[in-house]
Amino acid sequence: MGGRRRCDRNKLLWFAAAILSLCATTPAAAAGTDTARHQQPEASSMTVHVPIPMTTLAEPYATIHQTLTTHRNSHKDWVALGGGTGFMKYRIWPGEQSSTTTGVRLLSQSSFPFGVEYAKQIKGTVTKIADCGQQDASTGTGRLSVTLATTLAQGLAYTLLPASSVTAVEANRPCLLSEQGVDTAPLMAQVYRSELQGILPTVDRKAGALMTLKPAVAQVWKDLQEPLLLDEAEGVWLQLNPEAIGPAGVETLSGTPTAGYGVTARPTVVRGTKPLSRHLSLPDLQSQFRDDGFHVAFALQVPIEEANQRLREAVVGQEWSLGVGTIKIVGATLYPLGNQMGVELILRGLLPLTLRLKGTPAYDESTGRLFFRDVDYTIKERTPATDLADEWLHDPLRDELARRLVLPIREELDLMRQALEKGLNRNLTGGRLRGTVSRLSLEALTVQTASLSVRFKTEGTLHYDAHADIAAP
């Protein structure tokens, strides 16, 4: 740690390095700590990605032409053309069907033969006068190519809402009426587009009924309630504590359309045995979700006995020269001073006395340094000799202490950030957790009567990518 790398400096400054060594390391170094639970954890946001089973979605659209033909054949209605003097019926023969996914849209392509009957109203009666392609799919039929585009939105109760439109109906082969030789393909394309557009809302509702993602999201929700082990050696755990969920939009992730759900959580960090898993049922979907990023503010409490022991290991036994003699540290103890930090040092040698240091710890984010404001000291033993020395040396020594009590800790915080990030990237039952910790900062360092309190804050993102088959029927 920083104090051990500075052993050639004034040993009186080692107390700061020792205090730093209690906190600015990987999570494993926070031995003997527990989460401060006296305040409500800050709300965090994370995004869950659930793959959409596009094969299931495609099924109703693969049979839409058959559905429309069945409807047409059962009703045997003539379709009025123009002003109502011309009429037509059509039939569709089996053809080819395929579907592709582009972004978050399903494109359904079909190509099939068709036949047409043409009639006119004669003396008040609709009378057939010609036809084409009615007897055999290989004789006289025309051919249509049809493309449907289906986009998805999120609905309530963890459903999806398909919305389809006809993007193209093209005549690829003519269908010539037997008597007039007139090509009915352009007319057929126009009529079929209109009828297909009319049946799409019904097919969309049918497809939407097949697309509930609630069981898949429930599995993810269950995963997120399990404590995550960040450090096995020291038993450091992260509890995500999800509490609400809302829609976060449909998008494409790694080439797969996914439904996004935003989870609001209040994560906490604890140490010791594994905390109990929560068993909250999946809540109703909120109307909206605001992504404010994933952040955890947590205070680790180091028992004061352990903090003092770590301090003594770092500073007791150190000595340095004053030019006319040496001073050796033989004892060190932390003591609380409200928002300040106090260290009592027992010195022997040229000046056998007890020095009480105090200062306000602060962290400079721009430089990555821990420093102390309002540094001062007092001498516990008041004798004429110590009073005289203090009168001559107090201000210069105080200023020198303030100047030297500046410790770079960015490297240590980066190590801790990397350890946290590693813990946020792992496989879970229903998918994979994927996190980044873009920033970790030390916000407060306070000596209390029974403990040393170290407060950190992390900023980053957290995603849960569900397995591809989690939403399969």
Describe the SSE topology:
Layout (H helix, E strand, L loop, with lengths): L13 H8 L22 E8 L2 H9 L1 H12 L3 E3 L4 E7 L3 E7 L2 E18 L2 E8 L9 E13 L5 E14 L11 H25 L4 H11 L3 E4 L4 E4 L2 E12 L2 E10 L2 E4 L22 E10 H12 L3 E3 L4 E12 L2 E10 L3 E12 L4 E11 L4 H21 L1 E3 L1 H14 L2 E2 L3 E17 L3 E16 L7
Helix pairs in contact: 1-6, 2-4
Summarize the structure.
The chain has 473 residues and is of the alpha+beta class. The chain has two domains: 313 residues, no CATH class; 154 residues. It is 24% helix and 44% strand.
Main pleated sheet:
7 strands, mixed
Rg of Cα set: 38 Å
Described by the principal axes of the CA atoms, the overall outline is: rod-shaped
- Portion of residues in beta strands equals 35-45%
Mean pLDDT: 82
Structural class: alpha+beta
Give the % helix: 10-25%
User: What's the structural domain tally?
Assistant: 2
How many H/I helical runs?
8
**Low confidence ranges:** 1-38
Write down how many β-strands occur, each being a DSSP E stretch of 2 or more residues. Answer: 23
Distance between the termini: 54 Å
